[in-house]
Write a structure and sequence with these properties.
single chain, mainly alpha, about 0% strand
Length: about 210
């Protein structure tokens, strides 16, 4: 037996409510039902509030208030939105795969849409993998011979302006301007000795700059 979550929440909200709140809940439920009958998927507080107000119920402002009554009104509207806003999906994956057929058979709209999202994401990831497989392979020569340096690879990553900026950053004049210094581990520190970079930061920049200049 399928459970009507909207009806359950509506009855739950009616319990212990004052006559005024019960009337307001009824107006909100009627407003939501009018959207359902009109095949509208818009269950925003503003829209439901306008419909409710037009029929003598609470306004959108009352629905949006951060009090117990407002929370109850929003809870009922959210129940309708969760059920009816998820029934139609604009971009459903195409194809007649066995997986898609099984997903379409799911009765719960929210679970069905979640499964479709996962299916789309999986398909997108597979496409990215195929693109990477077809990408040009880059060979990096790691031999110690200086004649086989990695200069071309660095040239493809950093231009002269960018390499100059790195070199300037660790220069004594620039560091002194901020009151910074370099400790024994190659980390940049402030005037209080607090590390601003990881150890080896300066050496890494120097190696990049030296390799390029050779």
């Amino acid at each position: 037996m399928k459970i009507d979550i909207k009806a359950e929440i509506y009855q739950e909200l009616l319990e212990g409510a004052s006559p005024t709140v019960k009337l307001s809940l009824e107006k909100i439920r009627n407003a939501c039902e009018s959207q359902v009958k009109g095949n509208s998927k818009d269950f925003s507080y503003a829209v439901i509030g306008r419909i409710s107000e037009a029929n003598g119920g609470v306004t959108a402002g009352t629905i949006g208030k951060s009090n117990k009554r407002g929370e109850g009104y929003r809870k009922l509207i959210d129940a309708y939105a969760a059920v009816h806003s998820a029934l139609v999906r604009k971009n459903e994956p195409k194809g007649d795969s066995a997986m898609l057929s099984r997903i379409k058979q799911l009765e719960d709209a929210s679970i069905r849409n979640l499964a479709l999202d996962l299916m789309e994401e999986n398909r997108a990831l597979k496409n990215e993998v195929n693109i990477l497989k077809g990408a040009k392979t880059i060979d990096i020569d790691l031999r110690s011979d200086k004649s086989q340096s990695s200069t071309p690879l660095i040239d493809n990553v950093l231009d002269n302006k960018e390499r100059g900026a790195l070199s300037h950053f660790i220069s004594p004049n620039n560091l002194a301007e901020y009151g910074w210094n370099i400790n024994a581990n190659g980390a940049v520190c402030d005037m209080n000795g607090r590390k601003l970079t990881r150890p080896g930061f300066v050496q890494a920049i120097e190696k990049l700059y030296i390799v390029v200049e050779k």
